[in-house]
Amino acid sequence: MIKIILSLIDIKVFKFLFIGGFCALLTLALMYFLTSILLINYLISAVITILVTNYIGFFLNKVFTFQTDKKLFWRELWKYYGVMLSSNMINLCIIYTLVDIIRIWYLYANMISIVALTPVNYLLHKYWSFKKKS
Questions:
Q1: Which of 69, 81, 109, 129 is the most exposed place for a label (fewest CB within 10 A)?
Q2: How far, in Å, CA of 115 to CA of 102, rounded?
Q3: Is 1 helix (H, G, I), strand (E, B) or coil?
Q4: Whole-number pLDDT of residue 116
Q5: Are 24 and 117 in contact (CB under 8 A)?
Q6: Per-domain residue ranges for the chain?
Q7: DSSP class of residue 68?
Q8: CB-CB contact of 46 with 92 (8 Å)
Q9: d(CA 126, CA 44)
């Protein structure tokens, strides 16, 4: 019975969530360090963490989650960054709204944003960034 249930569930979702969780923890740790220790503005810290963790997320998802051909690297990288650019712009707007308007702590705001954007990012990466040609 468990084998049947597992066969119906796309394992890629779990891999994506695992990598996303790793990147989210890295993002939060780096953002805390930059904002609370180095006293950099939280929005600038968010941009820096985005730049650092996006490539890590791309590489891990390419190799581990979607396991696509090495020859597709540049095409997938361009698509991945296209998705992440729009996602990160929304992320920054959410963080700004939650921190400066609603007055939520910047790390909580970032966590809320990450959770809200994860399903959309997964679908866009699965069906566009890493889509295998049929």
A1: 69
A2: 18
A3: coil
A4: 96
A5: no
A6: 11-129
A7: -
A8: yes
A9: 29
